[in-house]
Design brief:
Order of helices and strands: EEEEEEHEEHEEEHHHHHHEH
Number of domains: 1
Radius of gyration: 22 Å
Number of helices: 9
Helix content: 10-25%
Number of strands: 12
Length: about 475
């Protein structure tokens, strides 16, 4: 969660595992959109001497659909190359690292950025941009924040990019949720928990004090909109973009003998992808998860049945008896969940929620849909659109959005009245949550790009 280790095969390949995707109108520059794709999840900070890094053999991509056909109109490709300075030492660094080209830093990583248009034309925007090092500790890196700031690159093509280690700001009570869907704030109401607990308890952020590797890009809004306009209205179809990220490997790789170079041949094969948080994690059955990761969003009609009748929606009335009776009655009708189909696969049409739409048309596809004409909120609500904050999930996704609780409320029936005025959601549907917020992340978000916090260091955060 949101997509950490979400499928059997990709859980064995963390370097290519897309763990979170964010897309939002930038609060530090509202004429731009910020997109952040996280990989290599659940990193323990004290993991030397071989610290985490991007894969030199992985093609990382961020895709943007501007016309609603679930095919990329713009793709940004990121490729990485690792260089070893000293082959006579086992150390990541042989002294303090005070700059991105410090000679004491032994294992450095660089990246290139290529832009691909809807016709397949590729343009290399930058090459050999330095990544910052992993945050070894305050002795090795006395001013990590400055190093990371130096690794933010403004391209001549107007984009701003960053690639490197960050603190994981996604908050989730993994230990509780995957223990038969126990929610600690409601554990005494749980079918089994009733016999074990006499009261609620505070949730635990299982991903706190772990790091990820982030690819972040900030793009002028007129460059991602279908008509190239700098100003659009929120009701205009051209205001909405769809975003997803993917990772691919070459079809065949042969390991070189005796330290020789590896040989990779064949086309790129997609092994990971992510649009909406929790989609493959919670909606797609385990038998289909690896297949989902291999397909483009334009094929997602194959998974619409699991959105229309979500397994979790059937489990909630059973696991929390008496709390979701209206949901249980709705389930018995066996009608497809039109609210969830809209939220996750087509976007919400105009006229359903006052002042809001993020509809991309009839093509069913798992994409983060962002209405780029809706300005950043002056005061964010962690429940996003469900909480009355139109700048939050499922309108794109901000870092502080509680996507777990938003998704729980939607599945529990809180969003059904949007499409069925006669349905009355259970009181619990508007109250259910995991019990966490961005305040349960021990690192603070930055107020400017790339927004994710400084990674936890190994010295002060031992395993």
């Amino acid at each position: 969660m949101s997509s950490h280790r979400e499928a059997p095969e990709i859980s064995k390949d963390p370097v290519a595992d897309s763990s979170d995707l964010y897309a939002f109108v930038s609060p530090d520059d509202p004429d731009t959109v910020t997109i952040i794709a996280n990989y290599v999840p659940l990193q323990l900070p004290s993991s030397g001497p071989n610290f985490f890094e991007f894969g030199d053999d992985v093609l990382y991509e961020i895709h943007i659909d501007a016309n609603g056909d679930a095919r990329p109109d713009i793709t940004y490709q990121f490729r990485f190359r690792t260089e070893l300075r000293n082959d006579k030492t086992f150390l990541y660094n042989t002294g303090q690292i005070k700059s991105l080209d410090d000679e004491n830093w032994n294992r450095r990583q660089f990246f290139s950025v290529t832009k691909v248009d809807s016709h397949g034309k590729s343009t290399v925007l930058a090459s050999k941009l330095p990544c910052p090092p992993c945050n070894v500790g305050t002795v090795s890196i006395p001013d990590y924040a400055k190093l990371a700031e130096d690794a933010v690159h403004k391209l001549k093509s107007k984009e701003k990019v960053f690639a490197g280690q960050r603190a994981d700001a996604f908050f989730v009570d993994l230990g509780s949720i995957f223990d038969l869907a126990v929610l600690r704030p409601f554990r005494d109401k749980h079918l089994v928990g009733q016999a074990l607990f006499d009261k609620a308890s505070k949730a635990v952020n299982a991903t706190d004090k772990t790091n990820v590797h982030s690819i972040a890009i900030q793009i002028p809004l007129d460059m991602v909109r279908r008509d190239g306009k700098k100003r659009v209205r929120a009701k205009d179809a051209g205001a909405v973009i769809g975003v997803w990220t993917s990772a691919s490997r070459r079809r065949v790789e042969v390991r070189g003998e005796k330290g020789g170079n590896d040989v990779v041949v064949g086309p790129q094969v997609q092994v990971s992808r992510l649009g909406n948080p929790l989609f493959n994690e919670v909606i797609v059955p385990m038998a289909e998860k690896d297949k989902f990761n291999s397909l483009p969003p334009s094929e997602d009609k194959k998974f619409a049945e699991f959105v229309a009748t979500p397994e979790l929606g059937a489990l909630l009335p059973v696991l929390y008896p008496g709390l979701f009776d209206n949901l249980a009655a709705l389930n018995k009708k066996k009608q497809p969940r039109a609210d969830l189909l809209a939220i996750l696969l087509t976007g919400i049409p105009d006229g359903i929620i006052d002042g809001f739409q993020n509809n991309t048309g009839k093509v069913q596809a798992d994409m983060l849909r962002l209405n780029t004409a809706i300005a950043p909120a002056a005061k964010e609500n962690k429940f996003g659109v469900v909480g009355g904050d139109l700048a939050g999930f499922p309108n794109g996704r901000r870092i502080a959005d509680d996507v777990v609780s938003i998704s729980l409320r939607a599945v529990a029936g809180a969003t059904v009245p949007l499409v069925d005025k006669e349905f009355k959601a259970d009181a619990a549907a508007g109250l259910v949550e995991q019990g966490l917020s961005i305040n349960d992340v021990s690192a603070k978000l930055l107020k400017k790009f790339p927004f994710l916090p400084t990674p936890f260091d190994g010295f002060n955060n031992p395993s």
